[in-house]
């Protein structure tokens, strides 16, 4: 089909929407450079004082640290649990395993506000409210389904005969899993780990319910900043987060490009 | 071991850890909340009959449903435009466009909400630009009303709308459209009579996905609605953390839960759910 008027309009419309998706976030950049003490657009004068504050304020630094600890622990736990689940369900492959799979994906599809209520309800009697353990456990439950999905997607392309071959050659279940299955599903496991980290790093709804004073993650501090709506440090934090997102995205794109190239050859 | 394996696959041992965690730390308290909706503050269906008696509850539910429907309509429309343009582009351009969608998908919800706050406020960039250009004399109220909530929610949901549509459109056989053109149909006729019906599964999946995600959305309505647009999620938050009343919140959560689960069941009949949620990874 040769490109007609319709196609031109369609492409123009698509780019307008794409710009609508990406550009609004960029406003954080000028706001973060304002020399004033309150949220405003800079007028001719620029200053890095809000970035300086972001990286020297003990509050913001502790939030970065806490979010990193919780995010990394969540990613590690979710990756182990999710990968084990994916391999287990793949090995069982019956109608029961599909029911169990649907059940295990529930934490991802149930609205976060309901998950938040559930964790809050249970964490109070367990004494997990406002602790690292409580946050990590809650985030792990939310993030493991992501790993389950990505690892399962990789397993779908894995040839079960390889597992048979490894066992026939005398390898135990454990050796087969570590030396044969895991290396072949590495891309899925890695992207799952990355998704799990991002989920935790960016999670706010459950965090608002299960943390109070001791645990004050980065999203929580940004949330407070947004609610108070005065301190430009929030804008500086937003710029840092955008930069981290872009870097993570570039890494992810490179990895997946390398994998598709490898699978083509 | 071998006899055991005949009746019971050892794969279950690998599934067990997470299964136990979800059952104990997630399903347990959710069932408890369902129970609470019938027992707190007094046992019976009092929380549910309040739906008929209290105007404010009915208004909150109606606001939520209305905002979610409008959000879904716009998100799916925009998503369709993007997905359609993508499948009709060269490969390098497709990746570029997909990059835009994924970057916006990945940018923190808090960063995005903050940006809209800066853009849409009374002294925000949009109003300032419009005023200095002489288009308006009074700042337009973009925030603390439904308009602001809708802008923020549509912005968040468009990437979710694009992905199922894209999966669907990429699987279509383009020869059908060529056949239609060869048989004398115009481009417009081909689109309405052939292409659109073929993308119906993608449309349904993307509509349901966006609607489900919108139902429980908390952040954007709370900030951009500025307390003026009260939706279910924010009401639950206030009930639990400010006024400490579980009964009504549990009832609303129960309704939302069953709404979402029945929509998911509907959705699973149109599309494999994992392609919707895991579509970004491949």
Produce a short descriptive summary.
The complex is a heterodimer of chains A (265) and B (282). Chain A is mostly helical.
What features would you describe in this structure?
- The complex is a heterodimer of chains A (about 260) and B (about 280).
- Chain A is mainly alpha-helical and about 260 residues long.
- Chain A has a domain of about 150 residues: Orthogonal Bundle (MetI-like fold), CATH 1.10.3720.10.
- Chain A has 14 helices and no strands.
- In chain A, α3 crosses α14, α4 crosses α8 and α4 packs across α13.
- The longest helix of chain A is centred in the N-terminal third of the chain and has 35 residues.
- The model of chain A has no long low-confidence stretch (mean pLDDT about 90).
- Chain B has about 280 residues and is an all-alpha fold.
- Chain B has a single domain, classed as Orthogonal Bundle (MetI-like fold).
- Helix content of chain B is about 75%, strand content about 0%.
- Chain B has 15 helices and no strands.
- The longest helix of chain B is centred in the first third of the chain and has 33 residues.
- Chain B starts with a helix and ends with a helix.
- The C terminus of chain B is likely disordered.
- Classes of the chains: A mainly alpha (about 260), B mainly alpha (about 280).
- At the A-B interface, α1, α4, α5, α6 and α7 of A face α2, α4, α5, α6 and α8 of B.
The fraction of residues in strands of chain A falls at under 5%
Q: DSSP helix count of chain A? A: 14
The number of distinct β-strands of chain B equals 0
The SSE string of chain B, one letter per element, is HHHHHHHHHHHHHHH
What is the arithmetic mean of pLDDT of chain B? 87
CATH homology group of the domain at 65-217 in chain A: MetI-like
How do the helices and strands follow one another from N- to C-terminus of chain A?
HHHHHHHHHHHHHH
What characteristic shape of chain A results from the CA principal axes?
globular
Q: What is the CATH class name of the domain at 65-217 in chain A? A: Mainly Alpha
Number of domains of chain B: 1
Estimated structural class of chain B: mainly alpha
The biggest sheet of chain B, with number of strands, parallel, antiparallel or mixed sense and barrel status, is: none
Low-confidence sequence ranges of chain B: 278-282
Q: Give the oligomer, counting copies of the same chain as homo and different chains as hetero.
A: heterodimer
How large, in whole angstroms, is the Cα Rg of chain B? 23 Å
N-C termini distance of chain A: 32 Å
What is Rg of chain A? 23 Å
Mean pLDDT of chain A: 89
């Amino acid at each position: 089909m040769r490109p007609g008027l319709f196609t031109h309009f369609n492409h123009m419309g698509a780019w307008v929407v794409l710009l609508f998706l990406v550009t609004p976030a960029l406003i954080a950049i000028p706001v973060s450079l304002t020399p004033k003490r309150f949220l405003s657009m800079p007028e001719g004068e620029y200053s890095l004082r809000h970035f300086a504050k972001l990286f020297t304020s003990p509050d913001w630094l502790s939030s970065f640290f806490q979010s990193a600890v919780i995010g990394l622990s969540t990613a590690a736990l979710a990756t182990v649990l999710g990968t084990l689940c994916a391999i287990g369900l793949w090995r069982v492959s019956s109608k029961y395993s599909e029911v169990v799979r649907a059940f295990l994906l529930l934490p991802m599809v149930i609205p976060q506000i309901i998950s938040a209520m559930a964790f809050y309800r249970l964490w109070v009697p367990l004494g997990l409210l406002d602790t690292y353990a409580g946050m990590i456990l809650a985030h792990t439950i939310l993030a493991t389904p992501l790993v389950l999905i990505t690892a399962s997607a990789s397993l779908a392309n894995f040839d079960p005969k390889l597992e048979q071959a490894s066992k026939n050659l005398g390898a135990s279940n454990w050796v087969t899993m570590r030396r044969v299955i895991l290396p072949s599903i590495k891309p899925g496991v890695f992207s799952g780990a990355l998704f799990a980290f991002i989920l935790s790093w960016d999670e706010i709804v459950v965090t608002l319910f299960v943390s109070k004073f001791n645990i004050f993650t980065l999203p929580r501090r940004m949330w407070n900043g947004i609610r108070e709506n005065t301190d430009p440090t929030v804008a500086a934090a937003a710029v840092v987060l955008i930069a981290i997102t872009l870097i993570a995205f570039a890494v992810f794109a490179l990895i997946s490009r390398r994998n598709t190239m490898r699978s083509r050859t | 071991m071998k006899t055991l394996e005949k009746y019971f696959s050892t794969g279950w041992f690998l599934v067990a850890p997470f299964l136990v965690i979800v059952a104990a730390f997630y399903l347990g308290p959710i069932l408890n909340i369902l129970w609470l909706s019938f027992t707190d503050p007094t046992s019976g269906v009092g929380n549910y009959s309040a739906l008929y008696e209290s105007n404010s509850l009915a208004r909150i539910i109606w606001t939520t449903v209305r905002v979610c429907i409008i959000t879904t309509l716009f998100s799916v429309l925009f998503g369709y435009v993007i997905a359609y343009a993508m499948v009709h582009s060269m490969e390098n351009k497709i990746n570029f466009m997909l990059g835009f969608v994924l970057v916006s998908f990945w940018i923190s919800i808090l960063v995005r909400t903050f940006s809209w706050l800066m853009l849409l406020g009374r002294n925000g960039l949009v109003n300032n630009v419009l005023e200095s250009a002489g288009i308006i004399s009074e700042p337009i109220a973009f925030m603390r009303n439904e308009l602001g909530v809708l802008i923020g929610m549509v912005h968040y949901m468009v990437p979710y709308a694009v992905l199922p549509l894209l999966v669907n459109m990429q699987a279509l056989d383009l020869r059908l459209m060529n056949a239609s053109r060869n048989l004398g149909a115009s481009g417009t006729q081909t689109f309405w009579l052939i292409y659109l019906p073929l993308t119906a599964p993608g449309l349904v999946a993307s509509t349901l996905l966006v609607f489900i995600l919108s139902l429980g959305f908390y952040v954007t309505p709370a900030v951009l609605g500025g307390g003026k647009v009260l939706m279910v999620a924010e009401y639950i938050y206030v009930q639990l953390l400010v006024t400490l009343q579980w009964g009504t919140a549990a009832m609303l959560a129960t309704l939302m839960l069953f709404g979402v689960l029945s929509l998911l069941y509907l959705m699973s009949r149109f599309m494999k759910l994992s392609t919707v949620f895991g579509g970004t990874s491949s």
